Amino acid sequence: MSRSFVELERLAYAYPDGTQALADISLRAHQGESVAIVGANGAGKSTLLLHLNGYLRPQQGRVRIGDLSLTKESLPAVRRLVGMVFQDPDDQLFMPTVAEDVAFGPLNQGLPVAEVERRVNDALQRVGALALRERPPYRLSGGEKRAVAIATVLAMEPAMLVLDEPSSNLDPGARRRLIRLLAGFEQTTFIATHDLDLALDLCSRTVVLREGRIVADGPTAEIFVDAALLAASGLEPPLRMQGCPLCGQAAIETT
Amino acid sequence: MSGIDASLFDLGRLDHLGRQETPLHRLDPRAKILTTAVFLVCVVSFGQYDVAPLLPYAIFPIALASAGRIPFDYLLKKLLIVSPFALLVGIFNPLLDQEPRLQLGSLAVSGGWISFMSILLRFALTVSAALVLIAITRFENLCLGLQRLGVPQVFTLQLLFLYRYLFVLVDESRRLVRARALRSVGARGLGMRVYASLLGHLLLRTLDRARRIHIAMRCRGFSGEIRSLQPLRIGHPEMLFTLGWCGIFMVLRIWNLPQILGDLTLRLVT
After folding, report:
1. Can you give the residue range of the structural domain that contains B54?
2. Which of B220, B226, B227, B229 is best to mutate for the A interface (most A CBs within 10 A)?
3. This prediction's pTM
4. Which of these, B90, B115, B89, B88, lies nearest to B102 by C-alpha position?
5. ipTM tops 0.85
6. What is the CATH number of the domain that holds A170?
7. Shortest CB distance from A107 goes to which of B15, B167, B227?
8. B222 and B250 inside one domain
9. Nearest CA in chain A to B221
């Protein structure tokens, strides 16, 4: 079996106010795997994601991405490997135009201008937002903003993608387009989400967090039929696996 | 539209003007910054009672505004908004300095009024030049230009972020004000008291958001250096622009053009 691409070993993190956000997190993912991180609000999903690209450095334990063990020295290299898409696209889009925003990462990587231009156009093309190139980000719709936010990360050509709540605040159509887009990615992907239907579509594996600890880690299809586990973690089975209110048929008891 | 909305729109307009594509906009920001700096030094270097020699300097903001397609009414409106400061600085001059300095027919004009005029004129010239500079240059290029000219990174970054987060701040305050307005049902809410809490919230929210934006920037490799797609280059147009204007400023500084013109007309008439 090939060596894992991502490895978290006994990771722990407490916020300065004493809240233990993560405890004893051990996790491996191989190249190209897509993993859903699910759990209630405050279960530690976002904190876990922030460790994956080194924004937070482990207080205990170890993080390894590719061949790089996460340390202060390897930080710039790790950030080049990992693309992070934030929950609120408004936090991610801070440049005056879409094109400049997408160019921000590649420019910081020190790439020549011609190459940056190519990457900007490629990334925008891929998310279907090429027409938005010269628009200011704050005038875009929610779905467009999300697409552009993903393009800003794609333009850096990361080996791994980390997405925090990618489908929040999207209309159903935009959500479906997002799922199609993400399904086309070959990178290793971590998605933190409450949208279990999205996880069902995109992630072969699911990790359930509760109060900063991993309480389950396995194939998505198996995790999502364990109603007791989901209920204890503040979750419900994906809507598609629940009963139909019109035909009155209960699929899984959820209470 | 509430006041906050309108001012945000206005800021956005300045930003929008800075993104036009004219030969003036394409000039290297350093050339524009240097020229404006020389302009400012020339204008403020005149004596307290100088009015006439300052007048020809208006050609710089006017020429740049028309070449850069900056609407004059927009500039005038901005000037009016900040004019109370200049008025306040100069308003006591006519009272303090009543010695007659100028005789217009039978009318004696005191030194105070002349220096007041001079202050107003200088204010109009310097502020409009600065406004035009921002309106013909992308703000991030302006910061980049300043940095290349040797301004420490700490200051240029502050400037850049001040400008960027301004939109964030205004956006957050708009939401707070709207939330208050909707729940105070047309009445005055809880009066002034509630504003203290609003301000506190605004500060916390803005800090929080600024932190998240900072994370996002760091995640995309931001290391404190401003980079731009538009390469900076000092070429012939930049040299021509800077040297040409500086030459004009010098000429206007050394010779009092309105006086020379006046003398000339007088001589022609008599």
Report:
1. 3-138+230-269
2. B220
3. 0.73
4. B115
5. no
6. 3.40.50.300
7. B227
8. no
9. A108
